[in-house]
Every structure is written in structure tokens, then in C-alpha cells.
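User: C-alpha cells for D-2-hydroxyglutarate dehydrogenase, please.
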Amino acid sequence: MNPLRVHVMTTAAQIEELKTLVESGKVLTDADALQTYGKDWTKQYTPAPSAIVFPKTTEQVQAIVRWANQHRIALVPSGGRTGLSAAAVAAHGEVVVSFDYMNRIVEFNEYDRTVVCQPGVVTKQLQLFAEEQGLYYPVDFASSGSSQIGGNIGTNAGGIKVIRYGMTRNWVAGLKVVTGSGELLELNRDLIKNATGYDLRQLFIGAEGTLGFVVEATMRLERAPKNLTAMVLGTPDFDSIMPVLHAFQGKLDLTAFEFFSDKCLDKILARGDVPAPFESRTPFYALLEFEALNEDVANGALATFEHCVEQGWVLDGVMSQSQQQLENLWKLREYISETISHFTPYKNDISVTVGQVPSFLRDIDDIVSANYPDFDVLWYGHIGDGNLHLNILKPEALGKEDFFARCAVVNKWVFEIVEKYNGSISAEHGVGMTKRDYLQYSRSEAEIACMKAIKAVFDPNGIMNPGKIFA
Ligand code: 2HG
Ligand code: ZN
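Assistant: Done. Predicted C-alpha cells:
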């Protein structure tokens, strides 16, 4: 294991030197800024960075990285700070490098259907830009209004359309990165075909800023989907959801297949601003979406729905008839994470192959309910691609520390089951600090050794987001 050879705190003189590398006013050290930029959406860690720096150009990023190497100062990259694994948390005196001022769309290439983006471009900004060109950027999730492309690349963000479009990785045509030694690399030259050895671009996707920082990304766009239509179907039990998925996949090209439990619906309806999908309540719900390209497709969906009802897999259901109805159905699923955030939930983001989902969920649910009969356990997620979100809500009377300590006990058992099923301890939220100590449940010792060796190549002094992914 590489020792952490970085300073914990920067000196006043070092901060003064840092200020000379960027525009005036682009280094902040006030308490508010340190608090705001030192954290992401995780709630376990107390932010404690030394300073926040806002570069505006690639040259400035390079200068910051060289300065950090010279003084052995740890850098933490910061995008929209919507992450859920504490990969962008600076809790140990690091300097946060925020990409808020590198937020321009640089170029659009019509024939290649690509957009050159600076890392601070917000996901929604790219989605709207694509729309203006009559195209589509398909990676989508609830935090698209604040998450940034650089962060999406750092975590290989997934979301609600993975079943059809895959993860962020699929949409990165090329990358410019500043490595941990301050070198600028241009990776893949935005080519579709490029058989010239190792594809280093892929290494930087999902690396959580531990190898280098993305300073420019060329993102691919896709044909815009037509007449998206959603259905929400109520099922009598969890086991019915998979045959429903199978039945619909046999008839339609789904753009999404999500699920949530009735407990999740309780929380959503308690907000008072989202209509119930239908009058009855069922233990689980599937939300599926497809392009209703013509009447045949819509009729095929309705016939499949009827088949599922006849089989007893579906008890009730609804299909959107307008854009407004489509959006309201999506709110039932997309609002869950934000709605429950004030319960300080303990989160798990786990995955297995689709066929194993029912027995996997049953095994984990047994462990969790046996150990926490008094806790509210919420299940939801992207079931069409095998990704489940398990959220345990903190009872009001229990302190945060005690609650997380009690949840940590069961972590080990949950991850043993993940390992038994050859699954992942982090399907889409990344490893960061929250899952760092459990990496061995999803990656072999030999694999982790290779990962550390790769880090040493790109970041010889260990200054790039140290303590994330592995210690
Ligand atoms: C989602 O799918 C997000 O809603 C957040 O990935 C999941 O908060 C969570 O556990
Ligand atoms: Zn998710």
C-alpha cells in the first residue's frame, strides 16, 4: 500500500502562492465556503478543507497540480457535490478544486453528434443543449439540475435510463485530463474507432479524481426519443416484478424499468405535491417507460399489462396520456431520495445480475429486517439493470453517530451476501470514503493491487483525492 505522503494542512504562505496561480478572488478560505465546498450529499463526514480554488483554464489546473506536487498538498475535485459516497468530501485539510468556473459548452460537432464540454457543465445544461440541436443526452437522474459532467465522469454516473442507454462511460468520446503529475493528456481524440492499444480514457472514468482531473470532455449525443410513455404497475409482492420486466421486454424496447416499495410511496404522498398513481395501494410498484412510436406499440403495452394482470403479477396500473402525466409518474420514483434525505438515511447501492435480483433481495431483506425490526427500511432502484437502493431511515430519537454505528454492524453481512452473489457493493454511487473499507467484497486482492499500481503511474506523489476508493 502506498503511504499517504501528503501534508494535512496548508500554510498561509502556500495559500498566498496558490492565489497567484488563478484569477483574483478565486481562492476562498472563509468558513462558509469551506463548509459548502468541502462536502457532497453524504452526511457522515465533517468538511474541513484548507481552501477552495476555482481555476478557469486548463493551464491554471496544471499550475495548481504542480503547486500541490511541490508542497505535497492533497487536492479534492469538486463538481455539483451531489455524490453519495463522499468522493468529493474534503475532511482532512485538503484543497478543493472546484470546476464551477469551467462550465462552458465549447463546441458542437453536427456530423459526429458530439459536444465538447468543460467539466463544470451541469448535466441539465448538456441535456437542454442537446434538445436545442434536436438530439438527446440520455444519462439522467434526479440530481441532473446540479451535478456536473466532470463529476458524472468521475463516478461513471448511471441513473434511470441505463437499461437502454448504459452508463456515462458509453457517452464519453474523448477526454482531456491533467494527471497527478500535472501532465495534460488527450485521450481517444473523440474517435469511434481507435485500435491503438490501451484505452486510457476508460481508466479516468469512474476513477473519482484519484488519477487526474478532467479538464475537457467530448460527450456523444443520441437521437431524441419520441412520445415517451410511462406505466406504473402495482404488484402483490416483489417476486412478481421480474416476470413483469420479462413480459414487457419481450414486447417493447424499454427506456426504463424502475421499482419502489409502498413505504416509499407513503413518503412521497406525504409531501402533498405528487398525485397517487391510482386509488389502490399495493406492496410494490414498477415504473416502466417506452417510446410509443405508433398505436401498435401502445396497444402492445396494454395487451402485456392485461397479460400480467391475468397472471396475477399486477393488481393495478396506469399509463401516461400526456407529458404532464408522464412527469407526475416519474416524480413518484425520482423524488424518493430527496424526500427521505431529512431522515439521515443509511444508504446502500448494490447490484447483481438481473436474474439473481429476487433471491438476492430476499436474502438481504431477511438480514436487515431481523436486525432492525424497529427501523424503517425502504427499497427502490433501477431494477431493470440489477441495481437496488437500500435506505434505512434514522429513527428521530436516535443520534446520528449511534444510528450509523448500528448500521455499520450489518454492513458486513450485507456485503457478504453481495460477495456470495458476485455483485457490486457500489453499482453507481462510487466508492469514495463510504465504501472504501469494503472494496474487497467486490474486487480481488490482485485487482486492488493493480488499481494501486495504476494510481502510482498517474499520481506518483499521491496528491489526487487521497483516501478515496482505497486508503
Ligand atoms: C436514485 O436512484 C439515486 O434515486 C439516489 O441514485 C439513491 O438515495 C439513494 O439511495
Ligand atoms: Zn440510483
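User: Anything notable?

Assistant: Residues 352 and 422 are 7 Å apart (CA to CA).
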